[in-house]
User: Fold these one by one.
Assistant:
Number 1:
Amino acid sequence: MQKRLVILGAGESGMGAALLGKKEGYEVFVSSLQTIEMRYKQVLQQEDIAFEEDQHSIERLLKADLVMKSPGIPEDAPVVVKLREARIKVISEIEFASLHTHAMLIGITGSNGKTTVTSWIHYILQNAGIDAVLAGNIGDSFAKNVARKSNNCYVLELSSFQLDGIETFKPHIAVLTNITPDHLDRYHNQFESYIAAKFRIVKNQTQQDYFIYDADDPVINKWLSQHEIKSIKIPLSSKELSGNGAFLKDDELHIKINESHFTMAQDDIALKGIHNTKNAMAASAVAQLLKIRKQTIKESLQRFHGVEHRLERVINKNKVTYINDSKATNINATYYALDSVKADTIWIVGGVDKGNDYTELLPLVNEKVKAIVCLGVDNQKIINSFNNCVDTIVETRDMQEAVDQAFNLANPGDTVLLSPACASFDLFKNYEDRGNQFKEAVLKLK
């Protein structure tokens, strides 16, 4: 008898799971509480996949043998609670896709830096001639890629939401860039629950697998001191390490893996800043584990120029630099952004607050920020946090207005930095939409 697969949510993850489910012979039904985007609806119609939008027909959903929940749907959503009460298995798209491939999996998670590290690893592998696919929380979904064709290697960016729904998913190489408070609204303001979600990446690893992590991160170190993991640990540090790992010594990057030792001048790394040096360590440690030539690694570290919407220099206009850091959706990411800017800064900030504590930013804001442009539906928390240290704070409700205000406030030599520290969903589809609108608005300036 044909198994019934229900997909909750019809975004990128839901669409990928629907296509893979059909390919694997499931009877697929897609259920979305929102209106489905036309581009996705057309795919469902072309593939003859049954769907509903603007509702969940509970009786029909309860007939499922398996449910794939999109990562944006919280665990305590009423429909998920009812399905679990009915003892129907609910998994993530990452889990579902992993059940249908035997490829080597490289999984990258962390509060910040995971997109850069994922893209950097993929870039190195491509340069080495390895047919690796970039997927997960970046580009096309993992499931959609598995549905398209058989591949030997996937490099997956993984959010905590995606990891929440795994049972057997196991990356051969897992990377954890760092852990700082983020998405606390989703985890009922329990930082420990968010930490546990991140560490699910090592849950199913064995002694034959590898775990690359920031050994300077106190949150990661505390968790590791309290929990056993089976995989081989590869630490990253700004201080010299004695065994396997990556570290800095005398302004040189050192990667020591299984008797192989790779070195490179820190100044030769394309992306600057200590956080990017850590990202380079993570990417090159993966490359060393895969026995990629040292010259290929070195050239890839020298030539990689980052990802869109992450400290992306848009233009220098009238001697004012405009930087798009729309991907900074939490305090820690914005801290890196403000720290990296050397000029007086007009800071565009705001959106959907995820339980932010802005006090960590106060020293940098005091030192660097001459004006704040709030961009959000509710900006009061930002205003209350910074009105004692920044003289000029203005409120805006759309990107063009925010950029125009920043333009009027900037003097030659200043930097206008979009680094929101918040999610984008109050005014934009996602952080990419926010970043693209920023770039469009900047390029329209006279």
Number 2:
Amino acid sequence: MSDDPIRLATIGRIIRGRWRLLTVLAVLGALFGYGTSLLFPPGYTASASVLLPGQWEERELLTQVDIATSSTVVDRAAAALGWTGVGGIELRDRVAAKAADGNIITVSGTADTPERAQRLADQMVHQFVTFAARIAGDSADPEAAAGPEALRQTVVQTSRRITELAQAADPGRTVEGVQTRTELAQLRTALQEAVNKLDQLTPAANKANMVVMGPATRPAGEAAPTRVQLVGAGAVLFFLLAVIAHLTAARRGRRLRAEPEVAEALGSTLLGTVEVLDEGPAHRPAGRGPWARVRALLGVDVRWDAPAPRESGDEAGRQLRYRRVCARLRDELPAPRRLLVVVPDGDETARRAAARLVVEAGHAPSPGSSNGGCPVLRTVEVSVDRPMVPDRDDETGALVVLSAGSWTAAELTGIAGACADARHEVVGIVLADAVRARPTRSAARPRDAATPVLAVGDEATGGAR
């Protein structure tokens, strides 16, 4: 798994293999999100808009946005509201402003209740308009502001006088009269254009007249993030973290799969690979202790990244593999011995393979026969966390049976060290592979005569002592 690319199929295998654990973690994440929502009370946001008449450039609108959320405006709004324990510093994090199309500035305020949010937005808009008008009034020179208005009055009077002169002139009887009327009309038009240009060059008076586009609307729902959003985000976060943790563990996993790696870690030779029919999760070994029951309940006692069992041949082919392992084991030993069959604790496939191997060894010729026989086998299960192998008694060696891809090099090295401490030489290794039975057309299911139900333990033997 450490060299495989991460695909959607891999994530699907994690969800199928760990759906119970992922469900529990998602529920815990939802509870975490709910607890977070209790620490941060819900907020409500109300908004009010201000229209800026006239022509405004983009940088001027950004300046007005900064003015709307300036400390002066916020402090004045806080003083006008008079909320206990809420000053300008606290309000700065609750107010915001932005410029929209059409010279509109939207000011929003967030509070713990809809009524407070509405009052905050209205007060911020009121203080912003007041402060902006004061800035425009203070920056304008009264004499300079009065000059254009007087000029407009003069232009109006002049235009009126021009109209009177045009009416008093000869109404089109002579050429001189027509020219006079034309010149007077052009003069009136030129004066009107000059006034229009003057209005465009002095827009400060229009810009100071900001218009509040109605009171803020009372919010009907909570502002983001709401309690529902926090609960959902917590569930999704814990779910994703669990999936990422599974992927990271698989990437960093050092479980040995190749036969040479397993043989090197145990310091012995590989005698062969045997096949065990996969019984599915319903036939998992019973847990020991409360933690084992919890692991079984959550489904973490079975590996999610284990390869799918491949399809096997018939029962005769599987039995032949066990007999060949017994033959190789007999060839490896100079004389018949009594051996310990060491199985890692929790490796159900290896445990069943060891039971089958004990049976096949019992069916082999006895140690006293002329052509030699298979060693007498006794099965023991060894914990990989703290491996402990029984001391040497009648046995003079150990045969390690395990499934490939389930244990790391450090765990296998620990088992080999435990065998050496108990003065047992590892005489061989047998790998167990879980397989699926090939479906047959006949309705009758073949009888697995060579796999009796045995209680494999320290007293299971493969023949008479």
Number 3:
Amino acid sequence: MYEVILNLHSYLAYIVLALLFLTVANAILGLVGNKPFTLTKDFRMGLFTLILSHMQLLIGIVLYFVSPRFQLWGEMGGKVMGDSMARLYLVEHPFINILALVFITIGWSKHKKLMEANRKFKTFAIFYGIGLVLLLSRIPWSQWL
């Protein structure tokens, strides 16, 4: 079961990162190009990215508790913070990625209250962009690629 969840979490991460990148790029292009904010493209890109990001979070939470690494908390206790790999998997990756999802969710919520297209694009570019940078900063690249 662990392997299935790990693979699902890894493969969905590619999709989420690609969608997040496309949504941020689309928002920047819409802002710079002074384009109208459309429901068929811009709204749906933001919403689909939000939904898949939250699905990834839920899968990640399940993975966190079924992972063999979770047992390191019991074995190492507070010494987890002294081991850089254990700290990355048990503390930094989950915390920063949850924080990234908070920024993405705030960006989604803020954009719904705005009426002007430029402000909607700017909100997506800032909040989804911060989420993207945070996610990229805490991916365990050595294990993932």
